[in-house]
Write a structure and sequence with these properties.
Blueprint: H1 3-13, E1 19-23, H2 29-37, E2 42-45, H3 48-57, E3 63-66, H4 75-78, E4 84-88, H5 91-103, E5 108-114, H6 127-136, E6 145-152, H7 160-181, E7 190-193, H8 199-204, E8 209-212, H9 214-217
Parallel strand pairs: 1-2, 1-8, 2-3, 3-4, 4-5, 5-6, 6-7
Length: 222
């Protein structure tokens, strides 16, 4: 099936209140253009230089999301145009992003990444580290970032039960954080969970945003 056919198939499975981030990392401009012609406008990239090159050569109304691990020395490449940074996994990174967004005179939306998987290779705050940071309150002075919600990745496993449990834990924590720290901020409304292998489970557990690549674009071209 074509990219546009794959895209329509995925969109048909998503509830109207769940947004699709088409994960285009490692795929060429032609693949993104095909999805764009089929109506997709939100794309996710995980390498700053690759994102910069694509932003410069593809339609300007694309909404770019940065979904990978962000190194502080690469922030400057994406700040002028990135719409949402999915993987803020430390206080230091949040501070650094704010520093660059202030220089660019922008406010950039961010998600806090929580570590919910069994795998140590995945990064993110523990629930308690996230509570501690939010309790501290220093984040409220970062006037050039806006915390829009949370993000997490489940363990890569065939166990439906384990994946559902991990996503449920993040969904429950999202509600706790929203009630305790963002009750008066309607913009705190995103829970980014679910990728090509597990997005139906993520949606069952309350995801508002799924990040799907291979199911749309096929296997990556490294």
């Amino acid at each position: 099936m074509s990219i546009s056919g794959n895209l329509q198939k995925v969109l048909a499975e998503l509830p109207t209140d769940v947004r699709l981030v088409a994960v285009s990392k490692f795929h060429p401009n032609e693949a993104i253009e095909e999805a764009y012609r089929a109506g997709q406008r939100v794309f996710g990239e995980s390498r700053a230089q690759e994102l910069k090159a694509k932003h410069e050569t593809l339609p300007q109304d694309i909404e770019w999301h940065f979904i990978g691990s962000l190194q502080t020395n690469k922030i400057k490449y994406i700040i002028p145009y990135v719409a949402l940074i999915h993987a803020i996994d430390s206080w230091r990174l949040l501070e650094e992003v704010n520093k660059y967004t202030a220089k660019a005179n922008r406010i950039v939306d961010c998600l806090l990444q929580l570590h919910i998987a069994q795998e140590e290779t995945k990064s993110g705050f523990s629930f308690q580290e996230c509570r501690n940071m939010l309790d501290n309150g220093d984040w409220k002075s970062l006037s050039n970032i806006r915390i829009r919600g949370l993000m997490g990745m489940a363990t890569f496993t065939d166990s439906h039960e384990q994946v559902a449990t991990e996503f449920r834990s993040l969904s429950e924590f999202y509600n706790e954080v929203k009630n305790n720290y963002f009750a008066n901020q309607p913009t705190f409304n995103e829970l980014s969970m679910g990728m090509s292998d597990d997005y139906p489970i993520a949606i069952e557990q309350g995801s508002t945003m799924v990040r799907i690549g291979s199911k749309i674009f096929g296997n990556r071209e490294y």
